[in-house]
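Example A, followed by Example B.
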Amino acid sequence: MSRPSPPAPGPYLQTVSGRFVNPFDPDPEQLDPHDIARALANVCRFGGHCRPFYSVAQHSVIVSELVEARGGDVEDVFAALMHDASEAYLGDMPHPIKHRSPLGAAFKEAEGHLEGVLRERFAIKSDVPDIKRVDRALLATERRTLSGESWDWPELEGVEALDLELVAWPPDEAERAFLARFDALQARRSAEP
């Protein structure tokens, strides 16, 4: 019995569900919400440089809840949930490296292409300004709570941390929360005319 294999040689990832994804040239049909949820639940924010394990999946759920609390419609809230979905396939690069290094420039190019394919695959609304504002405020909150504030980060100048208590979820809980949020938002999106 032969085992399935990638369609061609190249930088393919085998996902938990058994799909093959080339993050540099992704087949939209291979991008699966369950794979995204599991991978994001296993990816730690801050490149792992935080006291407890704190996942990108939990971060994404919280961003979507905050965008909703600020009056975002279902499309804004869904875009907020999926704003870091590319990290399921590329990993999470710490902000200073991503935004201030040659490696980050190459990463951003690959990330931009993958984000475009994800936007198409899941009909994700682009350019939701509230996501960036909420993401920065949550970053400041996460840093204060989970990492520490021993020196200034230029990207957080003028950004106020939220009055929010963060308790890190284990990966299985983060995966369940992400998928529950994804499914609930998809149901709401389908119900709207």
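Example B, a separate protein, is given below in the same form.
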Amino acid sequence: MFGRVKPLDAILATAEKKSLHRSLGAFQLTMLGVGAVIGTGIFVLTAEAAQKAGPGMLISFIIAGFVCAVAALCYAEMASMVPVSGSAYTYSYAVMGELVAWMVGWALILEYAVAAGAVSVGWSGYVVGLIENAFHIDIPDMLVRGPYDGGMVNLPAMLIAGLVTWLLVIGTKESATVNAVLVAIKITALTLFVILSVPVMKMEHFEPFAPMGFAGIGGAAASIFFAYVGFDAVSTAAEETKNPQRNMPIGLIGSLAICTVFYLLVSSGVIGSVGAQPVMDAAGKAFEPGSRELSHACSAINDQAVVCSKEALAWTLRQIGWPQIGNLVGLAAGLALPSVILMMMFGQTRIFFVMSRDGLLPEAFSRIHPKYNTPHFITILTGVFVALFSAFFPVGLLANISNSGTLFAFAAVSVAVMVIRKKDPTRHRPFRTPALFLTAPLSFLGCAYLFYSLDVKSQMLFAIWGAIGLVVYYSYSRSRSYVGRGIIDVHEDDAGAPDLPVPPLPGME
């Protein structure tokens, strides 16, 4: 079962041909991480976290940030040893064999496609709120919310997913300048929010601090984990880093520390200015976020609670007397989030592409369009699923399902880095995880804890997805695998890879 290992030397042979200039210092790495991490999660999931944990979501941000930090250190050692495309999938193939690699790749497919759906729904919430408040019109909930969320279909989310799919098929390149501007817009909007909301905080809004107890804080941490994904952009820059042993930990921990402080300031501004207590039923039990029941309860109180909002930060600013700035924050989200959807769908097509070239998925998945030189078949297929996810499911459920795939992949990398340290201790490692046999188990246990804290629906859906993956592997992929057939054809130098839009910040979440 674990016998089919893709030889690490074969993978590295081509990687060495394209070694990159080592130019990144600790400051550049830290800024890369901040730009890659800050985004969708904090804009969209603040209301979700408040409904699960109340003001206790402050602790949730710290827990999720810590798990990411130890996972990032494990990721960095693998990324510095195996600086090739395919990320956790390739690492697992080289260390733990084909079946584990297949399950990691299968989990990453779930992560990217569902995350793109979650960001599409988040974008829809901000853009609809902006249109309604700027033009004083009321758009029917039936057309901008899915059936779980008190509506029928989320048309704006479908629209943006379709638009991004079209851009990916025609191969529009997103320039570094545009990306830098979008990162600046996101950070400026959040900084403005902190400046306006923190001075009007009232300490009584922090009581009770943990209305749902520690279970609520853990559940919120499992959702908020979505707000940190993207730090692997720093890990994968290992081969471009000067003195990686010193600079990688500074870049990883530094960027995560800055993002955590930023997130704590933003969430404190929400809690302190307008309050963030969960909406509860008559028995004192909090309604499930993104449910019809919560939607009905919110209608009864005229949506006068931050947990009822689909655009928590813009709504908060309007409540504290800054309606035009609230609209600007909505505009910033509307401008910046489509690039994140593009990143997610790009990552999805690249994972499919690498798995297809290994023979584990049909050749059609790596078929290139004759005119646009992009993998059009798999891009359109991905786009259809992303549009369907975003049309019918609430953002919180999508984020949790995506997190389940991410946590599985990170846990696998935590194990892989320990296995290869034991199996191949003399191999050159530009970066070595500090105190590995403490850090890696902490990372694995942290991922397991957050997975355990996810809602049962997300855990069940992940289990079903995993079972489907095993069926596909044993009925199709195992017999067609190139490694299984003795064909060691290494493509990790991306020879023949499609001309896809390659944004400068991989994983910009």
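On Example B: The chain has one domain: 8-480.
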